[in-house]
From TrEMBL:
<dbReference type="InterPro" id="IPR050445">
    <property type="entry name" value="Bact_polysacc_biosynth/exp"/>
</dbReference>
<dbReference type="GO" id="GO:0005524">
    <property type="term" value="F:ATP binding"/>
</dbReference>
<dbReference type="GO" id="GO:0005886">
    <property type="term" value="C:plasma membrane"/>
</dbReference>
<protein>
    <recommendedName>
        <fullName>AAA domain-containing protein</fullName>
    </recommendedName>
</protein>
<keyword id="KW-0067">ATP-binding</keyword>
<dbReference type="InterPro" id="IPR005702">
    <property type="entry name" value="Wzc-like_C"/>
</dbReference>
<dbReference type="InterPro" id="IPR027417">
    <property type="entry name" value="P-loop_NTPase"/>
</dbReference>
<keyword id="KW-0547">Nucleotide-binding</keyword>
<dbReference type="GO" id="GO:0004713">
    <property type="term" value="F:protein tyrosine kinase activity"/>
</dbReference>
Length: 172
């Protein structure tokens, strides 16, 4: 599996995996740096990272280039899975451009960080661009803040062992 950091404006994968940001994606696209010299192995088994690379004045142009499309196709041949990390979709068009060369799209939203209406607009934008949407992930969700869910968690905790054991029961 390869994680491709296509958020070249505010990349994060190099920090997450404690590796150098450059050379990376932008260096391959703008300078023809060889792919093999840029892909980095992580400490996790079968996980590789292609970092964002050097800063560039034209990120959207690079993401929509023929070179980017060719690179993604080549990476898909080399790796079983290629996960492309993009900038936030509501503010920047990079994710929409990259969805056209991806097999599928998964939205990730921070709980309380984006409105339902904004998510619906984003979905419509991607759907009209023929993106194949697999689903969404809601992160930073706090169960205690949403009492409806918390209440059922309480009942589950109370009743979870109610039917768990037959020990001490009279057999008919």
């Amino acid at each position: 599996t390869l994680i491709l950091d296509a958020d070249v404006r505010k990349p994060n994968m190099h920090r997450l995996f404690n590796i150098e940001r450059s050379p990376g994606l932008t260096n391959i696209l703008a300078e023809s740096t060889p792919i093999e010299s840029v892909i980095k192995k992580t400490t996790f088994e079968n996980l590789w990272v292609l970092t964002a690379g050097s800063k560039t004045p034209n990120p959207l142009e690079l993401m929509g280039s023929l070179e980017m499309s060719s690179l993604v196709k080549e990476l898909m041949l080399k790796f079983e899975k290629v996960i492309i990390d993009t900038p936030p979709s509501l503010m920047i068009s990079d994710a929409l451009v990259l969805s056209k060369i991806s097999d599928a799209t998964i939205f990730i939203a921070k709980s309380g960080g984006v409105s339902k209406e904004a998510l619906i607009k984003m979905k419509e934008k991607f759907t009209s661009g023929n993106a194949r949407i697999l689903g969404a992930i809601l992160n930073f969700f706090e169960v205690k803040k949403h009492s409806y869910y918390y209440k059922y968690r309480y009942y589950h905790k109370y009743y979870k062992n109610y039917y768990a054991s037959n020990e001490g029961r009279i057999q008919a």
